Amino acid sequence: MDDEHRKLIEKSIDRLITCTKFDELSHACFTMNLLSKVMLQKINRVPENQMQLSDAEKQVERHRRLFKKITQRGPDAFNKLCDICAALHYDTALGILRPDRYVSIKSNKMAISSGSMNHCQQNANYINNNTSSNNNDDSRRSSISIDDDEDNGDGAYQQTDRRRSSSKTLDSVSVLQEYTGEICPKDKFEVKRAARILKHPSLDTYPMQSKENRGVFFMVNMINFPVETHRRDGADEDTHSLLYLFKQLGFKLFSYTNLSHEVFFDILGKLLKSDYTKNTECFVMALMTHGDMDDSVQRITFSDGSVVKVKDIEDYFNHHVCENLVNKPKIFLFPFCRGDMLEHGVINKVQTDSIQYNTHRIKNIPILSDLIVCYATSEGFKAHRDPADGSWYIQSFVKNMAKNAHDTSFEDILKNIQADTLKLRTIDGSLQTANYVNRGFNKALYFNPRIWLE
């Protein structure tokens, strides 16, 4: 970092602290390769001479150490910091760092000198320019392609200005519409027809007997990322496999690829308020991307490089927000990494899905219930994906659902999936332990494929 930029940050450090969030900023610095894990550990460590400070004062000092450390980084550190601030919508911070170039990004306006474009806008244009060309490159791709930059995905992401990268395409691509395109998985697992509408002998059973409103399947698959080496090879196979499965189960399909976080939340909000979810008997969401666990907080990465807490997504399903799905079975498929550890105990080279780095209130029910969250791996560990065949977990999920959904409850099918996934090994002996979390999912769920009462 040159002296001018270093002095600017040092002079403005108190103002920068007040207009940025330490947790968001530190995480972005790590995932953008601006700071390493060891550096962040040192920043978070409280010196003995500050132990007497209050928690709030300690946090301010951590924040101060963070900015000071950034000033000690390489020649690209200042531009990376600006990129991060743009991506996190830190308008005031951008005004401090580049007062001659940045206007409020809340209004999607940036004043840029005619002689050059800033680094952040170059990144945004790179993504948008590749979107139009790549949409014509792969006719087999099964879902709407947004911000598709044909990059590889398995390492630290490069943040871009999330509002600029999505604003040009938001009106045209964040459209809620059923998927009706081509579905052609490599392996076609045929779902067996149920003999009758099943009910559990000793538990209540979720109703799954409608022909037209059996279920809604919402899938978002992040394949490409701003950093080329982070492309999730094989992930497109998961898209086709899941679409083929849930079409046979009678679900309405909503499939998207390579979304920014803004477009994702826009589409999700529309879907959860639509007649599709109002009338449906069941809802399934598959979110496939890179994930990481940071300070016990699960985060995932979108194709524009933005990072979002999984809890922020789950909050959209709270009963006081999403009344359409109250008392209905909800399933989340989360096959991403939940940390950076490898679990040891197919001999193939595999990849991992990680990145280093109000309405009226409904009473007397939990804030979120009737939910099963399916994880590909245990907390703290990586999830594996074959570059040719797709995610271990998703492929096992599809195979077992096709084989057993006609006569087996969903939770029992999950146990089979977990057992199958546990048998797989990488070339170095790594494995993964799939699991699920039951959050008030207190009834039995049978999918009853190809049979209905209507």
Question: Strands, helices and their partners?
Answer:
Layout: H1 3-11, H2 13-18, H3 22-31, H4 37-44, H5 55-71, H6 77-87, H7 91-97, H8 119-134, E1 144-145, H9 162-167, H10 170-173, E2 215-221, H11 235-248, E3 251-257, H12 261-272, H13 275-279, E4 283-288, E5 290-294, E6 297-301, E7 307-309, H14 310-314, E8 330-334, E9 343-344, E10 351-352, E11 371-375, E12 384-386, E13 390-391, H15 392-404, H16 410-422, E14 430-431, E15 435-439
Parallel strand pairs: 1-3, 2-3, 2-4, 4-8, 8-11
Antiparallel strand pairs: 5-6, 6-7, 9-14, 10-12, 11-15, 12-13
Helix pairs in contact: 4-5, 11-15, 15-16
> Number of helix segments?
16
Q: Major sheet: order of its strands? A: 1-3-2-4-8-11-15
How much beta, percentage-wise?
Answer: 5-15%
Report mean pLDDT, rounded to a whole number. Answer: 75
Radius of gyration: 23 Å
How many beta strands in the DSSP annotation? 15
Second-tier CATH architecture of the domain at 215-343 and 365-439:
3-Layer(aba) Sandwich
Low-confidence stretches: 102-172, 339-350, 355-363
According to CATH, what is the class of the domain at 215-343 and 365-439?
Alpha Beta
Shape: elongated
Q: Roughly how much helix do the residues carry, as a percent range? A: 25-40%
In CATH, the topology of the domain at 215-343 and 365-439 is named Rossmann fold
> Major sheet, described briefly?
7 strands, mixed
Secondary-structure-derived class: alpha/beta
Distance between the termini: 68 Å
Region (Disordered): 123-169
Protein name: Caspase Dronc
Family: Belongs to the peptidase C14A family.
Active site: 290, 337
